[in-house]
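The instructor's notes for this session suggest beginning with a concrete chain rather than abstract definitions. Hand out the sequence below and ask the class to guess, before any prediction is shown, which regions might be ordered.
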Amino acid sequence: MEKYIGMKIKEQRKIRNLTIASLSSKTGLSESLISRVEKGNVVPSISTLRKIAQGLGVSITEFFKEERDLNEDKLVVRKYDRKKLLIPGSKTKYEILSPDICNKIELLQVEFEPHSEEKKLIHLGDDEEECALLVRGELEFNFGSEKIKLYQGDSIYIKREYLESVKNPLDEKSIIILMIVHNK
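After discussion, reveal the predicted structure:
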C-alpha cells in the first residue's frame, strides 16, 4: 500500500510539474521525507499525507484512488473493499465510503470507541464543508463554550474552525457518516 500511495503522490506531483524541492517548500516537509514516501520506503502519517495533499491542491483520498474504466468498480464501494485510514495515537477508525469516481464529495464512516474523545476529526483540506449523520450511539460535539449532543438519526453541520472535540459518552461504539464537500 505504501508503494501505491507513493506512486499516486509522485503522479500528482508530475502532473503539476512540481519538483520534490518545490513540493517540499509548499508543504514544509523535507525533500528526503517526500522522496522516501514516493518510493514507498516509509509509511506516511495522516498529517504528512494532509500536508502533501494541500501542497498538491488535491484531496487526501486522491492517493487511494485506483484507475479503472467506468464500471461497477468505479461506482460502488463494497463493504469488504473499503479503504481504512488510521491516525497514530487515535482509536477512532475511518473508512472511505466514496467510490473512486467521486471528486467533489467524500463520504467517510467514522467509528468512535466507547468513552473516547477525539480532539480533531480527520481534516482533508481547507476548502471543504462537512456534515455528519449519527447512525449509531450518541456523540457530544464540543464547540468551546457550546456543547451539542447528537442522538441516533441526528445530523450536524460542522463548523471546523470552532470544533474542539467529539466525545462518545456511551459504553458502546458510536458511528457517524461524515460527508465532506470540496469547494474547489
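Then share the key points. The chain has a mean pLDDT of 86. The two ends are 27 Å apart (CA to CA).
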